[in-house]
Amino acid sequence: GDPWAQPEIPQAVVTTLALGVLGAVVTTVLATPAAWLTVRHPGRRSRLLEGAGYLASSLPGIIIALALVTVTIRLAPPLYQTVVTVVVAYAIMFMPRALVALRAGLAQAPPSLEEAARALGLSPLASRMRVTLPVIAPSAVAGAALVALGIANELTATLLLAPNGTRTLATEFWSASSSVAYSDAAPYALLLVLSSVPAVAILLARTRRTSQKDTP
Predict the structure, then answer these.
(1) Cα 213 from chain centroid?
(2) Residues 6+ apart with CB under 8 A from 188
(3) CA nearest 170: which of 12, 50, 20?
(4) Per residue in 107-133, pLDDT tens?
């Protein structure tokens, strides 16, 4: 039969997009304080916080997933195999992608810009919202795109932690290929490749803008 006629394809696409966007937003939000402390308040504590993020993400996905299985079953059973738990796993696994991008953005927004805004009468919060946020926004979007790309291709944590019946492009590709149904797996493989196009486009646009700024 036609491999594109599989009824699971639309659900897998929607679920992959939903988890990718949600995971990217949560990861970027959680990475922002760590990036801020590292750039604006460098010191031992900020380095330890940043290092903890890199260390946790360096662990194999299976270890992170099994650790969260143990924690949720023992301490918070209602969270086991929920979207909350799988998004937490994504945040742990892909935090460095958001951290690196946010640090690069904050490096382009020196504290002197906020000080000038406060000298003009803005409050600290208003100066950050009107001066710093627009500067780091492109970097935050680029970091979120990298995170979303990683989530779209993630398999282990999704299989172990997502609610029963969750279908993503990665899980459906794995299921079909494990059954040696390669023709059924082909649409998922192609859609996974196509899912990287928006993220790559965002990164290329970010790189182009950065190079234009650096060019005298």
Answers:
(1) 26
(2) 9, 12, 169, 170, 172, 173, 176
(3) 12
(4) 888 788 777 888 888 787 888 888 888
